[in-house]
Amino acid sequence: MYQIKTYNAIAQEGLDQFTADYQINQTDTPDAYLIRSVNLQKADFPEQLKVIARCGAGFNNIPLTRVTKQGIAAFNTPGSNSNAVKELVISMLIASSRNLFQAAAYSAQNGGADISMRTEKEKTQFNGTELLGKTLAVIGVGHVGSLVANAANALGMRVVGYDPYLSADAAWRISTKIQRANTLEEAIANADYVSLHVPKNEETTGMINATVLAKMKPNAVLLNYARGEIVNLDDTLAALDQHHLGQFMTDFGDDRLLNRDDVVITPHIGGSTGQAEANGAIQGAQTIMEYLETGNITNSVNLPNLQVPFESRYRLTLIHENIPNMVGQIATLLANANINIETMSNAARGDVAYTIIDVDHLQEVQEAQLEADLNKIPAVYRTRLLTK
Q: Identical fold at 1-81+273-303 and 83-265?
């Protein structure tokens, strides 16, 4: 029986994925966490914890280095909320171009018998512009960015995409009408709107700064529905104050942004739809079951992807450091125990590696001792013995 502990409100559609072999929220020492936004950076993890799955694309609430060294696999659910974020970004593009927030605020504060006459006279202050023919720069054309690019193209916008890490799969998702820029500066140079869709990492933190903003078209609109730290807020506010940047729209609040007519803040609602929450929960639950039952890895954020058909009676999985002779040490230990290896697969991701070994026969005493013996090898973080 596997034990699952959930944090935040996990959609019932996801919880319904778990079979009778799983119990939910029956213990504080579970095999798996299924989470959304709970901050685990300072959390203590039980020894039994083997996997954390986050229902959503972001994973900055998980201390990856620490969980890796504890032999815990961490996963996200990429693509589960992509459509929800895309629709919000397109909504904000339209709202910005037509001054919808300002117009709605005006209407809410004005009334009386002469409202129709006054509105006819004063509504020109809300005259906007059409998106047709305008240029949108999409920075990052992964799951969300590719959808935004295609939707904007369908609205008649000229779309320029920039992504130095564009994968073959992502390339297939983008319309051939999307122009690909070779540099960030090339992408934003003539853009009326710039929409950010990159993950937060060392390279992207603060990527939108004074230097980049200065190269944007005057009065352009910047949209950040990716991660707050991607934009240097002090530099952005300076560009707004200098009337170089026209407007900033973001899903990430900060006190420095409050009470400004040229800033629109939404309360981190990019993926907040019923469908997106259900999609993330379903994908997260399925990921947990796949990992616990087979050891196969897809969409891990701290371990390499590795999928091997589970056809033998026994399977060993090892999370370990990516250093020379690790596989040799593992194989030697098994050979000395007179254990025949049917298949062995190994993959690495930076400083960490993952090994799957299938064997057809183990003696009862070996079943009891094997995990402990393998865990004694220096640089092995965790060994698991799975039976089919």
A: yes
Residue 116: Cβ within 10 Å count: 9
| Residue 54, C-beta contacts closer than 8 angstroms, at least 6 positions apart | 35, 36, 61, 62, 74, 75, 76, 77, 284
The closest of 376, 374, 181 to 385, measured between CA atoms, is 374
100, amino acid identity: L
Domain ranges of the chain: 1-81+273-303, 83-265, 306-388
Res. 230: pLDDT tops 90: yes
Give the tens place of pLDDT for each residue, 311-341.
Answer: 999 999 999 999 999 999 999 999 999 999 9
State the CATH class of domain 1-81+273-303.
alpha beta
Identify the CA nearest to 319 among candidates 11, 13, 67: 67
Backbone angles phi, psi at 39, to 5 degrees: -85, 115
Whether residue 171 has pLDDT greater than 80: no
Contact 75, 51 (CB under 8 A): yes
CATH architecture of 83-265: 3-Layer(aba) Sandwich (3.40)
DSSP assignment letter at 23: E
Its CATH class, for the domain covering 306-388, is alpha beta
pLDDT at 159 over 90: yes
With 90 as the cut, is the pLDDT of residue 241 above it? yes
- Tokens coding 122: 């004063």
Please tell me the predicted confidence (pLDDT) of residue 58.
82
What residues form DSSP beta bridges with 364?
none
Helix (H, G, I), strand (E, B), or coil: what is residue 82? helix
- The Cα–Cα gap between 132 and 156 comes to 5
- Helices marked H in the chain: 12-15, 64-69, 82-97, 100-109, 115-122, 143-154, 168-173, 184-188, 210-214, 233-241, 274-294, 326-336, 364-375
pLDDT grade for 115, boundaries at 50, 70 and 90 = low
pTM for this model (two decimals): 0.81
**Greater model confidence, 366 or 65:** 65
Taken as a whole, the chain contains a residue count of 388
Q: Is the pLDDT of residue 281 over 80?
A: yes
Say if residues 55 and 14 touch (Cβ distance below 8 Å): yes
The residue assigned the tokens 């992509």 is 82
Check: CB of residue 227 under 8 Å from CB of residue 58.
yes
CA distances from 34 to 45, 112, 303 (A): 13, 53, 18
